[in-house]
Structures are given as structure tokens and as C-alpha cells.
Amino acid sequence: MSIHHSLDSIRRSLSDICSPPPDHRPFDTPRRFAAFAHRLSNLLLLLLPPPPPSPPLQTSLKGLAAEFSKAAETASVYNTGSKILVLVNCKNLSSALQQCAVAVASWLALLASALPDHHDLRHKASDLSRDMKLAQFRVTENEERVWCTLEKEGEGRESSKAVQSGIVMDLARALGFDPGDRAEFCNQVKLYKNDPFRSHSVRERRVLVSLERILSNWSVEPVTVTPNWDFEIVEDAAAPIFPFKSFLCPLTKEVMRDPVVVLESSQAYERTAIEYWFERCIQDGRDPTCPVTGTVLKSLELKANIGLAGAIEEWVGRVVEFQIKSAVQYLSEEPLSVDNVERALDHVYKVSEEHPSRRYIIRNAGVVPLIVTVLSDNSKTIGSHLRSKALMTLLSMANDEESRKIMLERGTTRLAVHSLIGSSEKEREYALKLLLEFCNDEDSCVRIASEKGALVLLSSIAGNMEYPSLSNLAEEVLRQIERAEDNVQCLAAAGRFGPLISRLQDGSVGVKIEMATLVGRMTLTNSCKEQIARQGVKVFVELLCNQEGRGPSLQALHNLSGLDGNATILIESSVLPPLIDVLFDEQDPSCEVKSLAASIIANIVSKPGHWELASADKKGNTMQSEIIVFRLLGLLNCLPSECQVTVLRILCGIISSPQASELVASHITSEGGFRTVLPFLEHPEVEHRVFAFKLTRLLSEWFSQNIANELRLSNKLTLLKEKLLNNQSTSDERSDAAQILANLSLSEGEVQTFLGGDFVEWTAVTLKSQRRAPNARFSHTASGMQEGLVGLLLHFTRNLDQPTLNMVRENRLMAVFCEQLDYTSKPKVKQLAAIGLKNLSEFGMSVTGRDSKPPSSSGFCSPLMLVCGKAASQPSACPIHNGTCDEDSQFCLLRSNCIKPLVDILNDSDTDVQLAAVDALSTLVSDYTSRSFKRVVDELEHLGAVDSLITLFTEVRTEELREKTIGMIEKILRVENMSNRHALNHSLVRGLVEAFKHGNSNSRKHAQDALTHLKQLSGVSGKTSSQTRARR
Fold it and tell me: What is the mean pLDDT of each run of 10 residues along the chain (1032 residues)?
């Protein structure tokens, strides 16, 4: 760079530095640096014309050009950047100018040494170099304080209103404007926000956010209006004047309550506000100042301004009286004005909160009853928002003892409870807080609990986690209510059993009996029954040994035993021995007590709860033991009628248990025990008959011959038939009667004479009508009836003589059985139907097997003409019977379309159903030597029976089912095309190998033959299939 270019650059930079800013700038540092720049400008005039160039001269001028270019940029920030930006970066800017001054001093010294012939110029350059080297560019104390404050604001701290006001005052002094000039402050913040020099660092962004927050919180006219009071009736001569400026704290902009004076500055502040300001200054690491004057304080001593406090107190008293008078006027208007009501509530709330010592004025003015009246009489008119404010105001006034009494007398608890269903969260919140405030004494707790729906609403809110704050408040209210002894019952009714259980466990015997009485007469949900049983059943068991507590304890246990899940809890609490003692106690003739004990036992044994393993008496006998069963049977002869039915329930319960049923049935049927039950089959009371029939049905499932004999001896067989045919009998009785008749071992003569053809027709028709009945498949009684009716028809399939054959054909029993196979709700029905199809199919196959002649063209084999009826006009060959069967033949599974339904139930989840289906299908392949056997297998293959049987075999669950399935598969594999097709079925081969190794003797024999048909025997026996064939 040439000397001329360097000089031009220096002159431009000096011109920028010396140019005055567009507005007044309160910063001294750039002005001082500009003074040095002005001296340098005069010195450069002496270099005209420029001396001959030399390396020292060129280097010095080049260095000066670079440094003044930097200084010009810094000066530009001072002169054109926002003032707040300068304050935020004042230390960095001053440091930059300081570095430039030191560097310029060094270049000026080099310039002076490069001008040996210009003595005056060299002397002036040396003086300027010395002065700039000694110059100190530092920020002022006020700038230092503001910088420190903004630096702390850049850390993102929260500031109180007092601190924010102090920051505004310091900032105003540093920027040179009046602290009350909000417009200028707003303008400075806006300039800072849009300043192109701003670095957008996190720290500067936080400073901007803090200043914008301070600006939004700053009152528009903080010196003339206080936000504490709202005067609407300015024309009223009684209205107090607005507060004097001296009443307002400069920091909070509110009327002072505890005015103090800073001794050093004589400036008055609110005590808490100025103390917080001092604390903040010390935290920021700077000397505390007086916010208004900016004076650095050496002492932080404050003195109470008693005179000012008295004047403020007098003014506040006048304001309070006026506000309360206005509130009474607004709340007494007819009709009410919503705006005036809200204004009145705001006035009363502010007085109560900000001047609690003046609450008596509100009370004496009758404001509390007026607010309660507004809530009760105008609840819908004022809306949820004003209801919230009214409750909030009452909550504040509830801190006054006399006002709280007024609220309680006026029914405020009822209004608060009603607000618990309010539409707004705020309304519910203040209602809960008000109720919590009322819970300070026990009488109020009782009053709240007695309010209609209070406990239910509180429990609902407490359990709703969508609003956690409301939930916590409601829970606290409930805890307070629980302290009152009189609330135990209503709390329990609302599902709060804590107090009840606590008293039940820890109270005296009298209290325990009282709690047991309460539990006994309550209507409980299932969850409540479980909760009480888990925590209190042991106490009830203990009370059974107490003469006074026995009755209440039995009532409680009876209530709890109604839940299925409680059976286990009761058994684990050893409840059976004391109950058995009560039931068999001959010294206590009380029927009510015995009936309760029996009902509890019946409830327990009718539900799963491992009672079969528990001791029923002190000697260790179980409920299914012979002695207990006989004693129960004995009670049937000596107890009143209302107790007898409960004993029958117990017997039905213990015989229904899979673990105890056979043993109990044997006890009852032995030594004439069943004769004790027989009279109840004709008892005048329905409930007695229902349980008697149920017990007889359960017994007949185990000892059908014994029960049949007893019924014959007592002439009760006809009773069963009459009960079944009587539409006036209950559905339970008819269902059980049908199942009993189905279970009984009836002779061939009894089947024909006792039941007869008309009965078969009635049974078949009833089965069809039941299937068409709505919801029949989902009714336990209907499914039981279905089971009984199908079982009854089985009697006619066991011994098929000519009259019976006619009944089978006329009533199309095979079709009836087939229809039951899709009865999905009762596996037993499908099992019985499959057995019926098996019996009919077996008969059909046996008749065919007796005929050795070729099939006649006139129809089904001649011996079967009486079975299948008259031949069809166009007979077709039946592959099953190797002859001609009618399309509606009742002895041919194929013609009756029964094979596919039987195949479908091979996939049933019940093993007994699968066994019955396999047995029925096995009748089709019983004669594998028949000439038509291949046609039979082809037909089974076509209907999917072969694949289903193989699938069932590979997934088999029991040895019996495997044995029957593998036997049928072995016969099917005798057909060559079947063995060829399944020779590579690895699942089948694997299953056959497994049966050959681990099955019973029959299964092994069938598996060996089946593997031989598949030419897979070598894989099992170790011999090749060719060797096997050669041996044959």
C-alpha cells in the first residue's frame, strides 16, 4: 500500500470516528477516543505534501490505517447501534478501543522516528503517542452496574416486580432518559431487538426476553394509577380520592403497607421491595444503590415512616368502607347485574386478602349472607365463572371464625358440594378448598358427609387422575371427613372402607360388633366385598366365638361370601369349622343363625376355592367326608323348611366339585341316604324342588342304577316324566328331570312302555323348537334341557326292535342327532348326539353285514326294507351299505348327510366329543373285507374325513383317542391308493412310530400294521420293507 493510499484510509476512518452520533449518546468513551482522533487529523495536515517514502514511514502509516479502521467499526457501534446493545457490550467495546489506542501509540512512535527532518511534526507525534499510551478507556460506575445487571439477566433468572422496576431506573439513567418515559424504553428495546450489530448469542437473546418481560409488566401510568382499587362511581361524593403519589412504592407501583425510608437517600419504599432489591444487588456482586437516585449506599439502614404509614392507613380505611358499601349495593340489586356482581366479588376478595384485619367490616356489613344467597338463588344466572369467584371469596372469608359459622348456618356446604359438578375446573377447585376449610371441626365433617351425593362426588374426583390437583384436594377432604366417628357408615356406602376396616381391626369388641353389623346390612359391590374380605374376614371369624357377635358376624360373612373370589379368602381364614359348629349346634335352636351359617357354607362350596382340602370341623374332617355328608342329610329331617333348602344347596355344592363329586355321591346313595332327598322332589316350595332335582341329577351321573332303583321303589319315575311334560314347571326342574331320565339305566320294557312313541315325537319336536328359540344356546338351563332331551333319545338307539325301528324312522332320529352337532355352547350335547349316530349307524351296518347276497335292485338290502322303508323310484347304490339306501335313511350316515358334521367336530376342543365322533365314523370302516370298502374310503376321502383323522392323530391328547384314531387310520391305509398317497406324510409316519414305541398294546399293533401299509416298517423294526414282503 502506498503512502497516499494509507493517508486516505486514515483520513476516512478519522472522519467516521470524529463524526457526531445522530442522537444524544451518554457514553464518554467514544468521545474521549474521538478527541485523540481529532489531534491525529491535525497532525496529518503537517505531512502535506508527503515526505519521500521510506520503509519505516510506509509501515507506520499502514499500521495506523489498519488500527483506525478497527476503531471506526467500534465507534460505529457506539454511534449508530442501539444504546442497550452498547450497555450489554460496554466492556468489550471499551476494551477494543483501549487496544486500538495502545497500538496507535506504537505506530505513532515509529512514525516519529521516520521523520528526522521534521522536528515539529516529530515532536507532536511523540506527544500524541505518549498520551494515547497513557489513556484509560473504562466504563462508568453506572454503566458497570447496568452491565452487571444485564449480565445476570442473561443467565435467565426470574425477577420480581421490585427488581424489574430497579432495573428500569438504572437502565434509564445509563441511557439518558426519564424512568417514567415508557415510550422511550419501549423504543430502546425495539431498537435493540432489530439491531444489526446484535450477535444473536444465547446470552443476548435472554437479555432481550428479560427486557420484553419487564416491558410487558410495566404499568402504563405507574405514578397515577394503582392496580389495587377500582373506582367506578367517581361522581359519588363519598368516593375516596385516588392515592397520592407518595403512597405508591417506586418499585412495586402499589400503595405501600409498611413504608420505610432509606436513610442515606431519604427515599421511601415498601419494606419488602427495597430489601429484596438490596439482596439482589448483593447477589449480583455489586454495591447496593438507591433505585430512584442511583446513589451507591454505604449503609442499608432503613427507618419506618410512621407518618406516611398513618396517612396510608387512614386512606385505606376510607377505601375499604366505600368498597364494601358498593359491594352490598351491587349484591342487593334486583335483578342482579352480572358485571356488578363480579365487581362486588372482586372488591370483597381484595379487601379480605390484602387487609385481613378488616374482615370484620365485611362480616358486619352482611356481605357473606348476600354472597351465599347469590350462589343459591342465582346459580344458573351468574354462570360458572362467577360461581368460582363467589366460592373463592367465601374461601377467603372462611378464615374469619364468625364468617365461617354464618356460612355453615346458611348451607354453604350444600352449595359447595353442588359446585363439585361445575363445568369449570376453577369452580371445582374452590369448592374443594372451601370444603377442606370447613373440615377443621368434626361437626362440619359430619355435615359435609351427610350432604346428598357429597361422598360419591368426592370419591369420583379423588380417583380421577386427569386432574391431579383436584384429585389431591378431594383426597385430603375425604381424609378429614374420615376422622369423624359418625361418618363411618356413609363413607363405607361411598366405597371408602378405610375407617370401617381400621375400627374393625383395632377397635374394642363392641366396636367390632358394630362394624360387623354395618357390613352385614350394606349393599356392596364386588370390589368392595373383596377389599373387606381381605382385610376383615379374620375378625369376623373370631367374632363367631362371641355370643353377642355371632349374629352380626354371620350377617357380614354372608354378605361377603356372595362373591366368587372370596371363597378362597374365607377358606384360608379357617371359617368352615366355626360355621359347622353353628350349623350342628343342638343347644342353639335359632333357625336364623343356622340358616345364615348354612347359606355361607353353601356360597363357599358352590364356588372354586380349594375347600375340598380344608378342614370342616375341629377333628379335621372335610366337607366331602362321610360324617359331614350324613350329618347334613340328617339336618333335612329336623330343620325348618327355610333351613332345609340351604342344606340342599350345600349338598349340591359339594357334589358339583370335580374333586369331591364321586365320593359325595357314594355317601349319599349308600345306606339309603338318597331316600332323605326324595320327598323334596314334590315339595310345595319351588326352591326346595329345584335343588332336590339338581342333586338327583348330579347323583344320577355317578350311580344311575342305584338312583333308578330308588325312584322305582318310591314310584317317582312317572314324576320325572310328568315334570318334564308339564309346561307349568320351572325351566330348571324340567331341565334336570330330562337329564335324570337320560342318565338312568332303564330297561328295554321301560323305554317302550314308560316313554313310548308319543314321548319320542314330543322330544324330537321340543329339540327342534329349542334350537329355534332366541338365545337358547347361551342359556345354561336351555343347554341342560338340550342335553337331557338328546340323552333321552339315546335310550331308543340301544335296543332296536321293530316298534323302536318304526319310531326311529318316523321321527327321523338320525337327522335330529345330526342337527345337534353344531350346538356350540354344550360339548356334552355334541357328544351324546355323536353317540346316537354311532348306535344307529352300527345297527345299519350290522343288518347289512347279515346279508351275504348281492344287493337287490329294489332298494336297500331286503332285510333293511323295514328300516329304510319303501325304495325310491330311482334307487342309487350306497357305497356304505353296498346297496340302495333312501335319501332320508335313518341308519345310513352318508344318506343322512351326517359324515361332514362328524368330521367337523373332530376339531372340537373337548376330547370326549372327539372320541364320540371317531366312534361314529369308525362304524363306516368296521367291515374292511367288504367288496365296497374302497368306495367307502373314497367317500370319506371326498368328505375330508381322512385328512381330519390324520391331523387329529398327529395332535392327539390322550391314549384312548390315539388308540381309536390309529385303528381307523390303519383300516383306511389298507386301500392301496390311500397308502400310496400318505407314504410320504412325515407327520403321520412320525406319529405312527411314536405310537409303535410308546403306545399301549392295541396302539402298537395298529401302528405296526399302518407302517407296513405305508412300506415304512423298516424305519421301526430295522428290517427293510423288501425283506418283509419276501417273508410274506
Answer: 80 86 77 88 77 82 88 88 84 90 90 80 87 87 79 72 82 79 83 80 80 70 41 47 82 89 91 91 86 88 91 88 90 88 92 90 93 86 89 94 93 92 91 93 90 90 90 93 89 87 91 92 89 92 90 94 90 93 82 91 87 91 93 90 92 92 92 90 93 94 91 89 89 92 86 79 86 61 87 86 83 88 79 92 73 41 42 58 71 87 90 92 84 85 90 84 90 87 86 88 89 71 41 37
Query: Does a cis peptide bond (omega within 30 degrees of 0) precede residue 335?
Result: yes
CA–CA gap between residue 823 and residue 767 (Å, rounded): 11
Rounded Cα gap, residues 284 and 299, in angstroms = 18
Q: Cis peptide leading into 577, omega within 30 of 0?
A: no
| Backbone phi, psi, residue 21, to 5° | -70, 160
Measured on CA atoms in the order 1012, 1015, 1016, 1020, is the torsion positive or negative?
positive
Separation in Å, CA 565 to CA 364, 526, 528, 609: 60, 9, 12, 8
Percent of the chain as helix, strand, coil, to the nearest 5: 70, 0, 30
> What's the alpha-carbon Rg for the chain, to the nearest Å?
53
Our measurement of the distance from residue 745's CA atom to the centroid of its chain's CA atoms, rounded to an integer in Å, reads: 56
Expressed in angstroms, the distance from the first to the final Cα of the chain is: 121
241, with CB counted inside 10 A (0-12, 13-18, 19+), is exposed
Spatial contact of 834 and 782, defined as CB atoms under 8 Å apart: no
Are residues 536 and 552 in contact, defined by beta-carbon separation less than 8 angstroms? no
Q: Does the model's pTM come out above 0.85?
A: no
Whether the Cβ atoms of residue 115 and residue 86 lie closer than 8 Å to each other: no
Residues 884 and 872: beta-carbon distance below 8 Å:
yes
Angle between helices 945-954 and 959-972 (to 10 degrees): 140
Task: Read off the C-alpha cell for 60.
Answer: 507506520
Q: How far is CA 742 from the centre of its chain?
A: 50
